[in-house]
Amino acid sequence: MAFSIKLSSIVRLGRGTQLFSFNSIRYGSVIPFKLSDIGEGIREVTVKEWFVKAGDRVSQFDNICEVQSDKASVTITSRYDGKIKMLHYKIDDVALVGNPLVDIEVEDDIDNPTIDDNKNIENSIKESTEENIPSNKETAGKILTTPAVRRIATENNINLKNVIATGKDGRVLKEDVLEFLNNQMKKLNNEKNTSKISMNKIINIDDEEVVALKGYEKHMWKTMTKALSIPHFVYSDECDVTKLLELRNETKEYMKAQGIALSFMPFFIKAASKALVEYPRLNSWLDETTQSLRIIKRHNISVAMDTSDGLVVPNIKNVQSLSVSQIASELNRLQELGRSVSFPLADLTGGTFSLSNIGMIGGTYTKPVILPPQIVIGALGKIQKLPRFDNDGKNIIAANIISVSWAADHRVIDGVTMAKFSNLWRYYIENPALLMI
Ligand code: CAO
User: Which regions form coiled coils (predicted)?
Assistant: First the structure.
């Protein structure tokens, strides 16, 4: 469910007359279509896919491109009818909010107008804008103009004080605003060319490559730097997963027939949720400013996921109400999104407790890093066949062992609570039938 930016561009000019849209003010005008503010404090995005190329015709709401911030993927749709003149970025380039994504040669509502038609349009604009000027000469911060022109300026983040006015009595005309826009475009293109030249200078060294951090990598930088200030208490243990292996082997094929790939992870997740029922404080967000814990009843379990674009941590919502197979199905869905690296924002936000399974790669113990504002993360090592004493303590048997390491924010969680939680989690994992009830 990627969200799209959809803005109506119909301009109504006085007395309810709908004359034309802003994008058809002048037939053939080239308009920089800028990346709008997409919320969540996102200032820059990486361009992941173009749905258009130069020369393509687009209509309002047609898909232009897919961009990815450090939080989500967003499909950008056209605000204009017209022809794509130029794409400002290549795939994987970083685009800044407020800067042009593409140039669009906008079209008039009237097909192929003749010069006279254009004149008529211009005239009707003039007439209508004149009609819209209030009798007391409406001003905006002492700038004399019409509401329609002011709206165009607002849509394009233009401060009217910077526009050279050529109208009567210093009035800013829409032509002035368009001229200003054109100049800005030229300036921006020059700046882009200059920065490209200096960047080439840096990376054209034979034995080095400069790689700028992007998207999820930048997010990892931010959250992990923030996590540095958290005093981590780490508690590790091992757990016999022999019964779990059997249970999973027994059910795996059946689940596969239902279209669900069942790994160990859904059991680890369910066991964490069941243990959280007993230790609800661990499912919290820490508010450092008010020094308070927000204990959350929903178990939105975040799962560290390896993707081609780096570490992403989507979460499975309301695990407390889900069965193991429902968790498996949700995990499959997230893994599918991980393959195309296109997570909707909703899957990436709201996590309350984290698990990281790195065991399919290897490793025994690891020290996981907490994902603030959460306060606990668990990490799993590789399942290994290891010699262990049986329950009587007399015979050595081949046991299937997995190690688990919990990291807790020691400002708010003490070691004993973490150890008790871990024991309960281990109990569920060693008696996995309980997870199916
Ligand atoms: N030990 C041994 N085998 C394991 C295992 C473990 N701890 N965990 C999973 N496996 C097995 C699975 O059972 C599966 O085998 P089958 O094909 O026989 O079923 C295989 O390894 C691959 O598993 P998977 O990756 O498809 O599925 P999963 O549910 O176990 O894990 C996910 C899902 C998203 C956790 C995993 O794909 C992933 O991305 N892990 C990396 C997490 C990570 O990057 N952690 C580090 C964070 S800090 O940088």
Answer: 171-198
Q: Indicate if ligand 1 lies below 6 Å from the C-beta of 311.
A: yes
CA 40 to centroid of ligand 1, rounded, Å: 31
In angstroms, what is the span from residue 219 Cα to ligand 1's centroid?
Answer: 22
Q: What is the mean pLDDT of residues 217-242?
A: 95
pLDDT tens, residue by residue, 148-196:
778 778 777 788 888 898 888 888 888 888 888 888 878 877 766 665 5
* Ligand 1 centroid to residue 19 C-alpha, Å: 59
For 296, counting Cβ atoms within 10 Å of its Cβ (0-12 exposed, 13-18 middle, 19+ buried), the class is middle
CB distance 405 to ligand 1 below 6 Å: no
Identify whether the C-beta of residue 271 lies closer than 8 Å to the C-beta of residue 425: yes
Is ligand 1 within 6 A of the CB of residue 313?
no
Report the largest interatomic distance among the alpha carbons of the chain, rounded to a whole angstrom: 102
Amino acid at 221: W
H/E stretch holding 335 reads helix 324-340
State residue 179's pLDDT score: 85
| Choice among 37, 93, 390, 414 that is catalytic | 414
Domain 217-436 listed as CATH 3.90.78.10? no
Choose the weakest-confidence range: 148-162, 211-225, 271-285, 320-334: 148-162
Min mean pLDDT across 111-125, 159-173, 193-207 is at 111-125
User: pLDDT, tens digit, for every residue of 341-386?
Assistant: 889 999 999 999 999 999 999 999 999 999 999 999 999 999 999 9
What pLDDT shows up at residue 193?
A: 64
Total H helices, total E strands in the chain: 9, 24
Q: Is 307 in the pocket of ligand 1 (CB under 6 A)?
A: no
- Residue 326 burial class via C-beta count within 10 angstroms: exposed 0-12, middle 13-18, buried 19 and up: middle
CA of 251 to the centre of ligand 1 (A): 18
Check if the beta carbon of residue 411 is closer than 8 Å to that of residue 262. Answer: no
Question: Which is higher by pLDDT, 245 or 69?
Answer: 245
pTM of the model: 0.66
232 is catalytic: no
Q: How many whole angstroms separate alpha carbon 365 and alpha carbon 359?
A: 10
State the pairing for strand pair 353-357/376-380.
Answer: parallel
Q: Is the CB of 304 under 6 A from ligand 1?
A: yes
Q: Is 410 a catalytic residue?
A: yes
Q: Supply 2's token pair.
A: 């990627």
φ, ψ for residue 211 (rounded to 5)?
Answer: -115, 115
